[in-house]
Design brief:
Number of strands: 6
Structural class: alpha/beta
CATH topology: Rossmann fold
Number of domains: 1
Distance between the termini: 15 Å
Shape: globular
Length: 150
């Protein structure tokens, strides 16, 4: 199984549920034309508008639905780091590990960083930082996650 972590595209300035910027929409279109992402079997996405707008063009290209999952949202102000980590672990542990399948997860930098470290511990530190519209691929073989270079 492969897991693709994708950070949402560039967003407009502001706080809260802000949309993608013009550049972010361009990034989303570019992602939808990325052959490597055309192998995705399932798309999970944060409920934030910028994340949905990032994966919508890809979902349309692939003819797939997007599963909006609240567990993929960024850390909330009322949430402590332990609760945030548990929420991420809950999502990751519920994923069906199916040989030959590729799952794309679109979320936020804090979520992706924590999830990457949960997958592989300290050895995944170099893979834990995501720029806007950047994706990284991880593969599970025999119960162990390995980082692949996109």
């Amino acid at each position: 199984m492969k897991l693709i972590f994708l950070r949402h595209g560039d967003r407009n300035a502001g706080f809260g549920d802000v949309p993608l910027s013009t550049r972010g929409h361009q990034q989303a279109e570019e992602l939808s034309q990325t052959p490597e992402l055309h192998k995705v079997d399932h798309i999970y996405c944060s409920p934030k508008r910028r994340a949905r707008e990032t994966v919508e063009p890809l979902a349309q290209t692939l003819g797939q639905n997007i599963d909006i999952v609240t567990d993929l949202d960024q850390m909330k102000q009322i949430e402590n780091p332990n609760d945030f980590s548990r929420r991420i672990h809950h999502f990751l542990s519920a994923l069906p590990v199916t040989e030959g399948k590729t799952i794309l997860v679109c979320s936020h930098s804090d979520w992706l960083q924590a999830a990457t470290l949960l997958l592989g511990g300290e050895e995944f530190i170099p893979h834990a930082f995501f720029s806007c519209a950047e994706y990284k691929i991880f593969e599970n073989k025999e119960g162990t996650w390995k980082a692949l270079t996109p």
